[in-house]
């Protein structure tokens, strides 16, 4: 591991914050260095602190502890991410025989220097009780790997020498803080302390020294593991590849069995993962417990292992369901065993696996959001690497289930996940075609507000990027993916659907929205223009439904109960206009196709409904491609300017209102949430156009 500390950079970093104390600036600088190294910290795993002096409003000098605040990422932390606490008071707490978690947190909050500060790290007392000025704590992969091997103390002593103290696993909080302080007093010359199954603390009078000690100690462990790897012969079995297009939707469906909320999947399949999964002894090694209990809230303690090679689709689905049921029963037995043994009252968390290992396919993780799935995947990938390296040294020795349970059901650990109310479409993926237009913008906006992972497709890159950029200013851009896709080309459609499956594991909501218009009376309508309208507006709907149907069917086969197809039809289906034959005919055909799809897909729980919207002109500066074509003709025929045309459409409906893209989006969300058992229905979004009433 390379020491990234630079005195020049440290000085420049401090110059960026002229009003911040030098100690805190340096603390922030080296914290970012630590946070940028994934093999040191991963998704909240680690914290840093500095002890210094401040001047109060009354002019008194006060010793304070600045420590990483909960919710901040070390890689990007700023000085305001370090709440300051009254250090002398915190140190006095050491005389207590016990301190409940709730009271500990209360003491933190009531002894902050700024009431608006973030919550301090749950390991604040460890940093307070230790005497050192700068303290760095990480869950370094190499260190934790060694602590999970047989006879870890002897091995750590061999690798790290006598300047490192070693402490067994202790639950974080007040007991750990006391034990750490005792350990330091027994080993006053120690330059670091390793906690088995947890991580490492390093210290220094300067930020540079504490950081350098971390890099030096972890590097020794890395070098040792690498040396052992080079002298170890690994046998691997040949494994045929497993189709992600078949396996991922089947896995996603099984995760949603028993009306469980849907999960987003993340699939990783690099060479390192494949090699690890096919190595001799991989199943036993890689299905052992977590490297550190801090991971359990993200990954559960163990992965699900599935052998899906050389199975047809039916057998693959059965194997997945059986494996899932076995995993869930094992989790329930673990939970029940712990609560019965200790006579505890706890509410069981969901039993679904978060990590799934499939030789020939790779690593798959499940999360209620893409971020959660990505975090689990990062942790799982590091865990696979660590256990594979450790295999060259000795057998893996996991922590006992009691300690895992304590951490998994610890209220302070669960609080890290946040308690935001779930949005109605959380965990669901949606594809909206015709993504470069105004209507898609409104549909996308309302779907994102409801919690979906959104894909927008179009064949026009420029228009598509504009819509994605606009929505990305309102929502997390990571939740929005543009797909260049031509709905009239079946190969293009299949590639788009495959991309979504590879990214997320499946599809929940399909909104065929792509459409083109052409203005011409039948006598002047060119066959080429007529066929083009049919290809996009009718054939395009047919092809995206046909390409998505196998995904819906596989998800349903293993347990998922629903899927939604919402066709953006048109008011013209029931109230066509003269000189609009190509559009009206193709839209009417797509509308009828939706009814057929409702009949045929009900058996797999997919609901198909239609929205008939009237004229929608724009969304912000995103114009409607359809009205770009027909608007000039409509204005000429009625001798109106653009605003006059808008007013004409407002005045012709019963409610005298303008129909917007957000209204269409609201209708899509209504169907997508499945609040009513509705399929084959038509919902007008037109303000009330009597001629277009469904009949």
Automatic annotation (TrEMBL):
- Superkingdom assignment: Bacteria
Which keywords belong to this entry?
Oxidoreductase
Q: Does the keyword Oxidoreductase apply?
A: yes
Record domain Class II aldolase/adducin N-terminal: where:
26-225
Gene3D superfamilies reported for this sequence: Class II aldolase/adducin N-terminal domain (3.40.225.10), NAD(P)-binding Rossmann-like Domain (3.40.50.720)
Pfam families from the UniProt entry: adh_short, Aldolase_II
| InterPro entries, per database record | Aldolase_II/adducin_N, Aldolase_II/adducin_N_sf, NAD(P)-bd_dom_sf, Sc_DH/Rdtase_CS, SDR_fam
**Coiled-coil features, chain-numbered ranges:** none
Q: Which GO terms describe its molecular function?
A: oxidoreductase activity
- Protein family (similarity comment): Belongs to the short-chain dehydrogenases/reductases (SDR) family.
Question: What is the protein name for this chain?
Answer: Bifunctional aldolase/short-chain dehydrogenase
């Amino acid at each position: 591991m390379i020491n990234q500390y630079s005195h020049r950079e440290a000085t420049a970093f401090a110059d960026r914050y002229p009003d911040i104390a030098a100690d805190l600036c340096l603390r922030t600088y080296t914290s970012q260095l630590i946070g940028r190294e994934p093999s040191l910290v991963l998704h909240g795993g680690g914290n840093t602190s500095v002890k210094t002096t401040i001047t109060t409003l009354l002019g008194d000098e006060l010793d304070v502890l600045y420590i990483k605040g909960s919710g901040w990422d070390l890689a990007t932390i700023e000085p305001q991410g370090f709440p300051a606490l009254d250090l002398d008071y915190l140190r006095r707490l050491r005389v207590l025989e016990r301190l409940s978690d709730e009271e500990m947190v209360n003491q933190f909050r009531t002894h902050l220097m700024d009431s608006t500060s973030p919550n301090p790290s749950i390991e604040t007392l460890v940093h307070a009780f230790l005497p050192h000025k700068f303290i760095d704590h990480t869950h370094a992969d190499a260190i934790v790997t060694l602590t999970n091997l047989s006879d870890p103390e002897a091995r750590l002593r061999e690798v790290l020498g006598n300047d490192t103290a070693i402490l067994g696993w202790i639950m974080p909080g007040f007991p750990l803080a006391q034990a750490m302080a005792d350990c330091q007093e027994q080993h006053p010359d120690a330059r670091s302390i390793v906690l088995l199954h947890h991580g490492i603390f390093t210290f220094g009078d300067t930020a540079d020294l504490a950081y350098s000690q971390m890099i030096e100690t972890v590097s020794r462990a890395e070098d040792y593991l690498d040396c052992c790897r080079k002298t170890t012969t690994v046998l691997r079995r040949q494994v045929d590849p497993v189709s992600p297009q078949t396996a991922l939707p089947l896995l996603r469906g099984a995760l949603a069995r028993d009306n469980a909320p849907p999960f987003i999947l993340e699939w990783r399949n690099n060479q390192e993962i494949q090699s690890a999964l096919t190595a001799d002894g991989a199943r036993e090694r890689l299905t052992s417990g977590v490297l550190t209990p801090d991971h359990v809230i993200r990954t559960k303690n163990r992965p699900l292992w599935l052998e899906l090679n050389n199975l047809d689709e039916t057998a693959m689905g059965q194997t997945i369901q059986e494996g899932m049921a076995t995993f869930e029963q094992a989790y329930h037995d673990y939970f029940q065993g712990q609560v019965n043994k200790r006579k505890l009252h706890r509410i069981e968390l969901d039993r679904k696996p978060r990590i799934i290992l499939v030789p020939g396919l790779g690593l798959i993780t499940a999360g209620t959001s893409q971020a959660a799935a990505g975090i689990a995947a990062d942790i799982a990938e590091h865990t696979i690497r660590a256990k594979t390296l450790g295999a060259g040294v000795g057998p893996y020795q996991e922590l006992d289930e009691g300690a895992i349970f304590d951490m998994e059901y610890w209220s302070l650990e669960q609080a890290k996940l946040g308690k935001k109310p779930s949005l109605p479409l959380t965990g669901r993926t949606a594809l909206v075609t015709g993504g470069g237009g105004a209507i898609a913008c409104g549909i996308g906006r309302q779907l994102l507000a409801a919690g979906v992972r959104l894909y927008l497709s179009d064949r026009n890159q420029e228009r598509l990027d504009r819509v994605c950029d606009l929505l990305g200013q309102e929502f997390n851009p990571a939740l929005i993916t543009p797909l260049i896709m031509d709905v009239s080309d079946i190969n293009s459609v299949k590639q788009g659907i495959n991309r979504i499956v590879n990214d997320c594991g499946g599809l929940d909501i399909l909104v065929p929205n792509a459409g083109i218009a052409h203005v011409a009376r039948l006598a002047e309508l060119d066959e080429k223009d007529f066929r083009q309208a049919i290809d996009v507006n009718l054939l395009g709907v047919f092809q995206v439904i046909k390409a998505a149907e196998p995904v819906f069917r596989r998800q349903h086969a293993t347990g998922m109960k629903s899927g939604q197809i919402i066709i953006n039809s048109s008011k013209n289906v029931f109230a066509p206009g003269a000189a609009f034959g190509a559009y009206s005919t193709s839209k009417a055909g797509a509308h009828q196709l939706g009814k057929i799809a409702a009949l045929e897909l009900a058996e797999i729980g997919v609901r198909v409904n239609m929205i008939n919207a009237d004229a929608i002109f724009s969304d912000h500066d995103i114009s409607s491609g359809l009205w770009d074509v027909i608007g000039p003709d409509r204005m000429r025929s009625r001798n109106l300017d653009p605003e006059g045309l808008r007013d004409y459409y407002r005045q012709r409906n019963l409610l005298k209102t303008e129909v917007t893209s957000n209204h269409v989006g609201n209708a899509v969300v209504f169907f997508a949430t499945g609040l009513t058992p509705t399929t084959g229905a038509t919902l007008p979004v037109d303000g009330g156009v009597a001629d277009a009433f469904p009949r």
